[in-house]
Amino acid sequence: xxxxxxxxxxxICKSGTSVKIECRSLDFQATTMFWYRQFPKQSLMLMATxxxxxxxxxxxxxxxxxxxxxxxxxxxxxxxxTSAHPEDSSFYICSxxxxxxxxxxxxxxxxxxxxxxxxx
Amino acid sequence: xxxxxxxQPEMSVQEAETVTLSCTYDTSESDYYLFWYKQPPSRxxxxxxxxxxxxxxxxxxxxxxxxFQKAAKSFSLKISDSQLGDAAMYxxxxxxxxxxxxxxxFGKGITLSVRP
Lengths: 120, 116
Hints:
heterodimer, A: mainly beta, seven-stranded mixed sheet, four-stranded antiparallel sheet, B: six-stranded mixed sheet, 0% helix, globular
């Protein structure tokens, strides 16, 4: 149980275009989803936290107009990178969490497999 | 704010040997959760082991065990009988008891290589 998927796994786009990444919890309802960015050989950097039906909470230094997050249902959150530029190229990871006791008694986050974004 | 420190960027271990990865953290909370995650070359984050701070007994999962020293705020991971598949980046992480919706704080990670 507690499986999280991400789509696409890889995406290449041209500079100036927008890219949408989907994160889905497949077998549980995710009250909260988190979006991370990771550069090679570095740690995960939290970008934003989203709760279903609410506006996302962005970390300091993350442009909310650049990285649009929507958490429209308890199983789906999307990250849209708008007007992408080469410096946005990175590995994006989502995770999902639930307050349901049958899913999560350790405040555990369940991670998706990540999306590699390359902006040309 | 909580911080997690992994001071060793890289470590190497001989296959079948034991290795210990260090992690220290800083918090003013009395109860919290600690995790070790493994990130292999596929980059999928895999939970290795977890520990609740109020539990004095160190967590164990097969070849993986922790040495949790609450007073010292130390949470090291011991890998016994190391295997080639253990080669990965390992992250120590902290989460408060505020709920499942609270943020994870990660250390910088350590790259573990396993020599055949």
